[in-house]
Amino acid sequence: MLMITLGVMAVIFLLSAQPGTGSYALSEQITHQVQSSTAQSLLPSFFSADFHANLRKWAHVYVFFALGVSMTVTVHLFWGAGRSNLPTLWQQGFLSGGLCTAYAALDELHQLFVPGRSGSPRDVGIDALGFVPGIVIVCLFLAIKHRRKKRNS
Question: What distance in Å separates the CA atoms of residue 27 and residue 22, rounded to the nearest whole number?
């Protein structure tokens, strides 16, 4: 699982390392493909107001959702899987959230050094819209699994 987490982090880093023109061109291509497909009709009307900008922000949310899920599973496997003297499941969730926040902040800092890009604390908040639900979903899943296991023992 660590490799998946590192892979997601690498994807985020590589996307952030693209110069502004390259990043904009890539998201513009995706925007055009979505708008010319039937997927456009599935999107809410408010999303269409500034489709390209919304697409770029939602990309943050989705990739950081993947980071939140993989980070939480990784933290659980390394520091919590069945060990009584280590962090509780919810402490693992908070640790995962801290690690994801730190990575999101470092990602924004990294973008300050990429031509045509800018780092924004607001984007860390947008990233949190992805990783927080990912962390919560994994923690809830693990809590239910643990409760069922306890009940059946």
Answer: 9
Answer whether 74's CB lies under 8 Å from 16's CB.
no
pLDDT digits (tens, 9 = 90+) for 28-76: 777 767 667 665 665 656 555 666 677 778 888 999 999 999 999 999 9
Rounded CA gap, 24 and 45, in Å?
23
What pTM value is reported for the model? 0.83
Q: Burial of 129 by CB count in 10 Å (0-12 exposed, 13-18 middle, 19+ buried)? A: middle
Contacts of residue 101, Cβ cutoff 8 Å, sequence gap at least 6:
124, 128, 131
Question: Tokens 């280590």, residue?
Answer: 86
